[in-house]
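# nightly structure sweep
# worker-07 picked up a monomer target from the shared queue
# config: single-sequence mode, recycle default, output format = structure tokens
# input follows
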Amino acid sequence: MVQTRAPSDPIASLLAALRVGVALTVQVLAGLMLVLVAGLVALVTAIAGITLAAAAIAMRLTAARRGNPSRASAMAESAITLEARRTPRGWTVE
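# output follows
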């Protein structure tokens, strides 16, 4: 036989309310932690993207200034022109 306390017992209702309050607090804190972690991941991803973009822009700008004119002229002299024509099986380069 199962014995239960009467619903009018003030201690039982206080403990039940406390249990519900603690459960709600734990759920709210877990939700806040998930939002915090998601925000941190988004922030770190944005910082990494901005850093990569800045590095790419810096590499692009410094490569344009550091061009070696003697090397470019040597490549222009030894350049080969290829001719391509369309065939039934695709393009052919001669």
